[in-house]
């Protein structure tokens, strides 16, 4: 596949681990000029050095995207290398457990990171893409965004927002030179299940998890080919398709049994 991302200024959020790390390496192999964003400056610096040693180009922006003005600072820092041509909105967190028992500060942070930061970064980067009639946006949602998810209801709702927003934005921009794709993976082997209450089910989720590099490759190819949705894995695709034919209350009940406490 001929790369359409060579020399493209590419911003990847949540680049220090998991899918974001794998996507950063994948774009680097295609010759993209990377702007790596995450809270962990040390991890970003190590990744940037790895990319540079391999002959690539990488800039580090250590930022907490929930902080006031963080999105603007990221875009301003990236702008030193030119206009953003590819935006990968990967940063996100999850919270697991009964809603009434969760710390609301953690829930609010999740909503601000999973939805607000993604929307703000997209709003900042998109006008220049439209003006050039060229650009790519990859938003990372989840299989949890296809149905209500008891015991992780707010997380699933944030990912439903990402999926619906991505599809709506794609329709608005598809004739104006901008590609918007949405990645909806199932469980992935990252540090995701080691915090936010998921620890109680970490072994269960890990049993069905796939490698981040495999997911990143699927997402990269979907974006390059201009696909609307990327649901990696035949079983996940089948689940998304089949649940369309069942009442939503039934789907929710099944989801609650699968996601409930062990």
Write the layout of secondary structure elements.
Blueprint: E1 9-13, H1 18-29, E2 33-38, H2 41-53, E3 57-62, H3 70-78, E4 86-89, H4 104-132, E5 135-140, H5 153-173, E6 178-183, H6 202-207, H7 212-224, E7 229-230, H8 234-242, H9 248-259
Parallel strand pairs: 1-2, 1-4, 2-3, 4-5, 5-6, 6-7
Helix pairs in contact: 1-7, 3-4, 4-5
Provide an overview of this structure.
This protein is α/β, with parallel strands linked by helices. It has 9 helices and 7 strands; from the N terminus they run E-H-E-H-E-H-E-H-E-H-E-H-H-E-H-H. It has helices at 18-29, 41-53, 70-78, 104-132, 153-173, 202-207, 212-224, 234-242, 248-259; strands at 9-13, 33-38, 57-62, 86-89, 135-140, 178-183, 229-230. The protein has a 7-stranded parallel β-sheet, sandwiched between helices. Helix 5 (153-173) links the parallel strand 5 and strand 6. Helix 3 (70-78) runs parallel beside helix 4 (104-132) and helix 4 (104-132) runs parallel beside helix 5. The mean pLDDT is 92.
